[in-house]
Amino acid sequence: SFLENQQISALAASLAFVSALDEIDSVICGVNDLSQLKEIVVASSLKVDASKFSGFSIRDERFLNPSKWDL
Questions:
Q1: Which helix (H) or strand (E) holds 22?
Q2: Helices (H), the chain
Q3: Share of residues in the chain with pLDDT > 90 (%)
Q4: Is 47's pLDDT higher than 90?
Q5: Which of 29, 31, 52, 55 has a 20 to 30 A CA-CA distance from 44?
Q6: CA 48 – CA 6 distance, rounded (Å)
Q7: pLDDT for position 69
């Protein structure tokens, strides 16, 4: 899988991806306990090239445009 190939956790990959985007200035994460906070702090220190996530890009308007969502 992608995460195994990158040797990264889902949390670290998620934080690294959004942090690598020029449009994102800050990331806010909620926590339930100290262990989660520690995990987030460690994961947020990892740097990942955002281009490695290009396989996940979505261009389909049905997903990108909220007015097309069937709720």
A1: none
A2: 2-6, 10-20, 34-44, 61-64
A3: 44
A4: no
A5: 55
A6: 9
A7: 93
Q: Both tokens of residue 67?
A: 């007015």
Q: What is the mean pLDDT of the chain?
A: 89
Mean pLDDT of 30-45: 93
Structure tokens at 18: 């959004």
Place of tokens 């947020």: 44
Q: 8 with 39: CB under 8 angstroms?
A: no
Alpha carbon distance 38, 27 (integer Å) = 15
How distant is the alpha carbon of residue 12 from its chain centre? 8
The tens digit of pLDDT for each residue in 11-23 reads: 998 998 888 888 8
Place of tokens 């007015």: 67
Query: Token pair for residue 39?
Result: 């995990």
Joined tokens for residue 30: 């909620």
Quote the CA–CA distance of 56 and 9 in Å, as a whole number.
16
